[in-house]
Amino acid sequence: MGHTENAVEQRLRKRVEALGGLCLKFTSSRSGVPDRIVILQGRTIFVELKAPNRLPSNLQKVRIAQMRAAGADVRLIASKEAVDEFLNEFIST
Question: In what order do the strands lie in the sheet with 74-77?
Fold first, then answer.
């Protein structure tokens, strides 16, 4: 595959925008939060992006668990193919 995290992020942004959504860079005063916020079809999803075969740091795992426990939809996406699988949730068949 050989995708970089940046390539995965670009694909996510372009595909979300093509579907009429927003893919916002998420910056926070707290470390370990996900990279992006996707707002699409009335849903808000936090997305942590990684290059293939890369894992979240321990702090990122803690933040993701905290956010999920509070009711947030948080996804880990680590390839261009995973971007497509994620966005298939929004495409009517």
Answer: 22-25, 36-40, 43-49, 74-77
